[in-house]
C-alpha cells in the first residue's frame, strides 16, 4: 500500500475502493472491525470476506494508515477499536484528489461517448417544434378541397 505510490500520486487507476472507504469511515469516528464490515456492506461491498477484511486492516495498521487498540469497555471479549492516523488522513486526502481528477476524466469520456451516438441518431420530432408545425401546415393545405379554375 504505502510502497504502491508513484511520484505522480497513486498507482494507476482506482481499482480497489475498499481501502479509501475504510479510511473514510474511520475519519468520521473510530470503529470496531465488525461495525466497519456492516457499514461497508451497506455501502455496496456485498462480497466482503471477513478473513480478507481483517488482513487488510492489519496491512493498513502495518502501513501506519490506521491504529488499533483493545477496547475492553463493553461486556464480553475485548475488541480492536480502529482509528485513522495522520498518515491515513493524508492518504485519504490524496486519494480523494485523484478521484476528483478521475471524475473529470470520466465526465469527459461520457460526454464524448454520448456525442458519438448523437451523430448517428435521427433527429427526434417533438410536438410543438417548427418541423411539426410545418408538417401540420402542409397537411391542412392537402385537406382543403381543390378549387375549380
From TrEMBL:
Taxonomic superkingdom: Bacteria
InterPro entries: Metal_resp_DNA-bind_regulator, Tscrpt_reg_PadR_N, Tscrpt_rep_PHB_PhaQ, WH-like_DNA-bd_sf, WH_DNA-bd_sf
Chain spans, region Disordered: 130-149
GN (gene name): phaQ
Pfam short name (any one): PadR
Annotated Transcription regulator PadR N-terminal domain residues: 22-94
Stated name of the protein: Poly-beta-hydroxybutyrate-responsive repressor
Amino acid at each position: 500500500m504505502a510502497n504502491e505510490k508513484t511520484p505522480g500520486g497513486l498507482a494507476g487507476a482506482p481499482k480497489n475502493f475498499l481501502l479509501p472507504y475504510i479510511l473514510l469511515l474511520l475519519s468520521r469516528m473510530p470503529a470496531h472491525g465488525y461495525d466497519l464490515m456492516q457499514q461497508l456492506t451497506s455501502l455496496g461491498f456485498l462480497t466482503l470476506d471477513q478473513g480478507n477484511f481483517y488482513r487488510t486492516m492489519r496491512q493498513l495498521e502495518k502501513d501506519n494508515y490506521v491504529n488499533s487498540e483493545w477496547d475492553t469497555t463493553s461486556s464480553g471479549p475485548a475488541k480492536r477499536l480502529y482509528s485513522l492516523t495522520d498518515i491515513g488522513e493524508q492518504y485519504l486526502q490524496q486519494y480523494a484528489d485523484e478521484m476528483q481528477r478521475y471524475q473529470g476524466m470520466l465526465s469527459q469520456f461520457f460526454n464524448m461517448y454520448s456525442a458519438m451516438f448523437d451523430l448517428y441518431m435521427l433527429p427526434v420530432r417533438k410536438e410543438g417544434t417548427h418541423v411539426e408545425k410545418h408538417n401540420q401546415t402542409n397537411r391542412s393545405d392537402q385537406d382543403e378541397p381543390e378549387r375549380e379554375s
